[in-house]
Specification:
This protein is α+β, with helices and mostly antiparallel strands. It is built from 19 helices and 25 strands.
């Protein structure tokens, strides 16, 4: 697949440290998370989180990996603890593998590493001749943004893990009964009559009585505190208004254009679609089957079938499949050589023959081509104007903010009104706000909120930068925190009461519907009588789902029932689902042979993963008991504690 090593991957991609990672987040480029050799030995440093043998894992190691991830993926603050824990586990496992390999005498030879490098970087060789260290170093840096030593260490670590996987999983096989059970599990289907009962749908119809409201308030009185609230007057230096007064000349635009001319250089690039048939991890026999399937789809494409529809139906690239195989524009050097050579040799509208890469077979269609050129000034000047206008307005606003700060420091008694008049600021006043209330009129800045509750009454704040510009604050009124009266917190009490009653009603309605249907009432009539909507699902398998309702796994018990049976009401968080088996489709034995090979591969892969996970757990347990693994998870305070 064509992709970009700088593209943002999905947050859910597998964090695999100390190994080569293929196919991250839907992209088939080779992604690497740099990790050098194990750090530290001997004694424990103050930031050591774990020790395996004489090798340590430190908070610095974890932060290095986290920073690498954050270069291409925005990590929400609340997920950093989770990421840190995952990174720690992977780093510990890497150290454990190294320890166990040394104990057992398992090594990776230079030849094995060289062969793997040749697989990933075939362009590093002209035939059997190495291109030379300088070109090789530049190639590794260009493709992976890594120094050669780190890249080759990653290759070694990946090969070492492969050897352990082979040791652990080579003897695993799939028996006839497992195949039959797997076939049945995958192919059994059920169609359901069902009703989904959501508390949120019931809330609007709930009208608590005055007695219920008072009782709820009295029962949970301490819960209904009213926090401190303050009203502030403010003077705003509005950057948006300032931008409207600034003029940018063509001379300034041309200077900016010339200073950044490289930004407007367009390289050779092509806009392509592709259909991918994966062969990664397949046996030779399965590769041949995949090739035949690809050749059949290629014939359809060459005969005029719609390419985007073929991609949506057949492509195994999750990153482009739903977009009809569209990869957007790709530049030279962004993709594997075989893909690039074919893509850049085609004319717009042309479809390639099968293209084989390390990821599988590709069918490529070129939509547009663009030769290298520099965009002319007239084409880009409007795009230059907007950011230049922002920069100039920000400079002027910053200069005015400095003048305001100086004026406030010179005279602590200068009034907000005088400042606003002198510097043409917009005056305003907030409603009474608490520390948790949004203050949209001031850009909802946390700095503004903090200053409101820190500022002594009668004082002026220094200018604070917000999304709207710079703001100066003055506290007008302060209302201390107190126990809320019923009238003050009535809306909160009613909201809580509605949620509580709606959850109870949802459970009651589920039980009542279940009772009525089991007593012989028709499902749709019983649901309607309770104000619920009855629906009938499509036939689903265990790995399918009912959109907006439940997954096949959550409905696992349904596959053990007969047609006409009513399942036990299913709890889905606060929602409830009541269902009846409208139709059950047993697995057709006639199709077993056709699926046998693929099913065998899937079950083997699943069993291998389970076995390797068990090996990892057993290795950690053994090293812990032997005192070779020591954990200090409390050192992860800056990320969040391990659970």
């Amino acid at each position: 697949m064509a992709g970009n090593a700088n593209d943002k991957g999905k947050l859910g991609y597998r964090i695999l440290l100390g190994a080569v990672v293929l196919a991250l987040g839907g992209s088939m480029l080779l992604y690497l998370v740099p990790q050098g050799p194990a750090t530290g030995s001997g004694g424990l440093s103050s930031d050591t989180v774990a020790k395996v043998g004489d090798q340590t894992v430190t908070t610095q190691d974890i932060q290095q990996q986290l920073s690498q991830i954050e270069r291409t993926n925005q990590v929400p603050q609340q997920l950093k603890a989770f990421y840190a824990q995952q990174i720690l586990q992977q780093l510990i496992f890497q150290r454990e593998i190294e320890y166990e390999a040394k104990r057992l005498g398992i090594t990776v030879s230079d030849q094995e590493r060289a062969d793997r490098i040749k697989m990933y970087l075939p362009m590093a060789f002209n035939g059997a001749t190495f291109i030379g260290m300088d070109q090789y170093t530049a190639l590794v840096q260009q493709r992976f943004q890594l120094p050669v030593a780190t890249f080759e260490e990653l290759i070694r670590q990946g090969l070492l893990e492969e050897k352990f996987r082979k040791l652990v999983t080579d003897g695993i096989s799939v028996g006839p009964e497992e195949l039959k059970d797997g076939y049945r599990y995958k192919n059994e289907k059920v169609k359901l009559d069902y009703a989904l009962i959501k508390p949120e749908d019931l809330e609007a119809k709930i009208n608590p009585t005055e007695a219920e409201i008072k009782a709820e308030y009295e029962k949970n009185k301490s819960k209904y505190q009213v926090p401190e609230r303050r009203t502030v007057r403010y003077a705003l230096l509005d950057v948006n208004q300032l931008r409207q007064t600034i003029q940018i000349s063509d001379t300034q635009l041309k200077q900016q254009y010339q200073a950044n001319i490289q930004q407007y250089e367009v390289p050779n690039q092509v806009h392509v679609q592709h259909i991918l048939f994966k062969t990664v991890g397949q046996t030779d026999a399965l590769v041949e089957e995949t090739k035949k399937k690809a050749e059949d789809v290629l014939k359809q494409a060459k005969k005029g079938a719609k390419f985007d529809e073929l991609a949506k139906k057949y492509s195994e690239d999750p990153g482009s499949k739903d977009k009809g195989g569209d990869l957007g524009w790709i530049r030279q050097g962004q993709t594997v050589p075989e893909f690039e050579k074919s893509a850049f040799s085609l004319a717009p509208g042309q479809i390639s023959d099968l293209v084989r890469t390390q990821y599988g077979f590709h069918i490529i269609k070129v939509l547009e081509k663009q030769t290298a050129h520099t965009k002319p000034f007239d084409e880009v000047k409007d795009s230059i104007r907007a950011p230049l206008l922002l920069t100039e307005a920000d400079k002027e606003a910053s200069h005015t903010a400095d003048q305001l700060s100086a004026a406030i420091r010179r005279s602590g008694k200068i009034s907000l009104d005088d400042l606003a008049k002198q510097y043409h600021l917009t005056l305003g006043q907030t409603r009474p706000v608490s520390a948790s209330d949004p203050i949209l009129e001031l850009g909802n800045s946390q700095d503004v909120k903090d200053e409101i509750f820190r500022l002594p009454p009668g004082n002026l704040s220094m200018p604070i930068r917000t999304d709207r510009g710079y703001v100066i604050l003055s506290v007008k009124d302060s209302f201390p925190a107190h126990q809320g009266t019923l009238e003050e917190v009535r809306d909160r009490v009613i909201t809580d009461l509605k949620k509580e009653q709606s959850v109870q009603q949802a459970k009651s309605k589920a039980d009542e519907l279940d009772k009525r249907v089991k007593a012989g009432e028709k499902f749709d009539a019983a649901a309607k009588a309770l104000g619920l909507e009855a629906k009938t699902s499509d036939s689903i398998s265990r790995d399918g789902s009912i959109s907006g309702a439940a997954s096949g796994k959550q409905l696992g018990a349904a596959f053990n029932l007969k047609q006409g049976d009513v399942g036990v009401p299913l709890s889905l968080g606060q929602n409830w689902m009541v269902y009846r088996i409208a139709e059950k489709v047993e697995a057709d034995p006639a199709n077993f042979e056709a699926q046998k090979k693929q099913l065998t591969e899937e079950l083997l892969q699943s069993k291998r993963e389970v076995a390797f996970d068990a090996f990892k757990s057993a290795l950690s347990d053994r090293l812990l008991k032997e005192g070779k693994l020591k954990l200090m998870p409390e050192k992860l305070k800056s990320f969040g504690n391990l659970t």
